[in-house]
Amino acid sequence: MGMEHTAPLKHSGPLSGVRVLELSIALTGPYIGALFADQGADVVKVERPDIGDIMRWIGPSVNGLSAVFRVCNRGKQSIAVDVRTDAGREIALELAAQADVVIQNFRPGVAERLGLGYDNVVSVNPDVVYLSLSGFGEVGPYRDRSAYDTVIQAYAGLASSQAGPAGEPIFLQQVLADKTTALYASQAVTAALFARANGRGGQHVHVSMVDAVVSFLWTDATGNEVLLDADGSQPSSFTSGFKPFRFIDGWGVVTPISDSDFTGMCRALEASGADDPRLATADLRNQNRPLMGEVMKSCYAGAEKLTVEEATARFEAEDVPFAMIVPASELPADPHAIEMGLFVEAEDHVVGRTRIPRHPVLFDGTPAQLAGPAPKLGEHTTGVLSQLGRSDQESELRQSGVIAG
């Protein structure tokens, strides 16, 4: 893959012309803004003048800019404004008055105390789509708790759903709750924009991390909790017990859903016992789990005799669903990833060379594209103030600490 500078296609994406004001930090709100910027939206991010978004400083970084911030804040304008001051709040409200979408992830009640709540914004912009992001929601005894990703993984059932045989909860080593919430919220905001385009006006959209993760988890991992009359003889998650195969020189997984998948996997791994009529169908395999366990032991033993290359050839010949486990560091060089154009390499003006996944959705008629570099803190303060007709106030605002950049 050659290095190329990726300029945003502001006039081709499906959200071209949509203006977004982002009053959020960390990952959920910023990731939404990044996806919208890829799709052509103009995103202005308001940050604190002193430290900005805390994610600027967390994790691997180059020249004071972290990888997470680079990915989640691509293509945005940064204006450093202290919205806790009267002058800062006025600037934020002026931007909100011009926005189609406002994103905020303050704790419940904080936006209102700052004078930037939905009622404040809708008074200057009746058609706004205003997104409130929260951890535990806006009602209930836990509404005021700090809600970071692992906190939500714990409360919403994700950690317990990953527990091993000993019952110890396991946390996914990524901010899945934030990212899941961002995806639900992105769809919700575009749905609200669609409703507005059809004459139904703007609205307040509320998305909590608890709602998002519970909805995500209960789709497939809580069968016994959904079917209250189930006998509990099967695990709640139909993927329970899946573990990778160890080959001579690597790891992989097969996911045998259909009967032909199961028999093909067993043939490929030369497993004994797979022809037992008590395992002929998925229903029978569920009824005879101890016998199924013995066959799987034979499959794992067979895998240890094969190289990754040998196993790949056999699985492909049997047409079973499989993949070899590929470390993130190796995926960009994989021939399929290259053919898909899965990653874009570009030179960044702050961090140097970057490699970032392309925008995950392909639009034939309104193509999206990675929206360019993430901004330095307050990089666009002067320009945005000029657009608001406040250039003559800039010096005074700087001296009083209201703005920076």
Please describe what this structure looks like.
With 405 residues, the chain is an alpha/beta fold. The strands form four sheets. Strands 8-7-6-1-2-5-14 form a seven-stranded mixed sheet, with helices on both faces. The radius of gyration is 25 Å and the shape is elongated.
User: Biggest sheet, strands in spatial order?
Assistant: 8-7-6-1-2-5-14
- Which spans of ≥5 residues are poorly predicted at pLDDT below 50? 1-10
Mean pLDDT: 90
Q: Tell me the distance between the termini.
A: 35 Å
| Rg over C-alpha atoms, rounded to the nearest angstrom | 25 Å
The amount of beta strand, in percent, is 15-25%
Give the total of beta strands.
14
Using the alpha-carbon principal axes, give the shape.
elongated
Helix content: 25-40%
Q: What can be said about the biggest beta sheet?
A: 7 strands, mixed
| Category from helices, strands and their pairing | alpha/beta
Tally of contiguous helical segments:
17
Concise summary:
The chain is an alpha/beta fold.
Please give a handful of descriptors for the protein shown:
405 residues, alpha/beta, seven-stranded mixed β-sheet, 14 strands, elongated, disordered N terminus
Mind sketching the topology for me?
Elements (H helix, E strand, L loop, with lengths): L18 E5 L4 H11 L3 E6 L13 E2 L2 E2 H6 L4 E5 L4 H13 L2 E4 L5 H4 L4 H7 L4 E6 L14 H7 L2 H4 L14 H25 L2 E6 H9 L5 H4 L18 E3 L2 E5 L4 H10 L13 H6 L1 H15 L4 H11 L3 E3 L10 H6 L2 E6 L3 E6 L23 H7 L6 H6 L3 E2 L1
Parallel strand pairs: 1-2, 1-6, 2-5, 6-7, 7-8
Antiparallel strand pairs: 3-4, 5-14, 9-10, 10-11, 12-13
